UniProtKB/TrEMBL annotation:
Keywords in alphabetical order: Transferase
Domain of life: Bacteria
Protein name in UniProt: N-acetyltransferase
PANTHER family, alphabetized: GNAT-FAMILY ACETYLTRANSFERASE (PTHR43415:SF3), SPERMIDINE N(1)-ACETYLTRANSFERASE (PTHR43415)
Single GO MF annotation: acyltransferase activity, transferring groups other than amino-acyl groups
Domain N-acetyltransferase span(s) in chain numbering: 9-173
């Protein structure tokens, strides 16, 4: 894979050593609202996922990368999903696992690196993100990195507090027509 390294973080493929991190993150009910998760994952299921994580984005329509700090510790995940090579677009999502590691610029750097990769290597025309209306931190992050609000899906996501609106953000590759 291309060197996906920034000033403070790097992005790398999932490795077998990431099983415990993935297990903790995927079973953190506090982020299920934004991830669409409905139930816990077993280590066995996550091991099967890791065993197939090497498959090509053109085959599985997804790319999940670890966000690593300077010590190569995995602090979060960033995904391209719903990869559509015909229309040259993909969704993007990210999570920094530990709340104490948030707001350090790692998410912004990861999103910037992934955006550059998606636009220059995968030759995508656009990236999009779906963000809950009350997720002000993510809204600020995506807007800061040039994503524009293009739509509102009313009462789109059912949560324990009721239905929430979801905002769709989009970033068009400035170097592709």
């Amino acid at each position: 894979m291309v060197n996906l390294r920034g000033k403070h973080i790097s992005l790398r493929a999932l490795e077998p050593k990431d099983l415990d991190f993935l297990y903790e993150l995927e079973n953190d009910a506090s982020i299920w609202e934004v991830s669409g998760t409905l139930k816990p994952y077993s280590k066995k299921v996550l091991q099967l996922y890791l065993d197939n994580a090497h498959r090509d984005i053109y085959e599985v329509k997804q790319l999940r990368l670890c966000i690593c700090n300077g010590e190569d510790d995995c602090v979060g995940l960033i995904d391209l999903f719903d990869f559509d090579p015909k229309n040259r677009r993909a969704g993007v999502g990210l999570v920094i696992s530990n709340p104490e590691d948030r707001n350090k610029g790692w998410g912004a750097e990861a999103l910037s690196i992934l955006g550059d990769y998606a636009f220059s290597i995968l030759d995508l025309h656009q990236l999009y993100a779906n963000i809950l209306e009350d997720n002000h931190t993510s809204i600020h992050l995506f807007e800061k990195l040039g994503f524009e609000k293009v739509g509102l899906k009313r009462e789109w996501v059912r949560t324990n507090q009721g239905f929430k609106n979801e905002i769709m953000y989009q970033k068009i590759n400035p170097n592709v027509s």
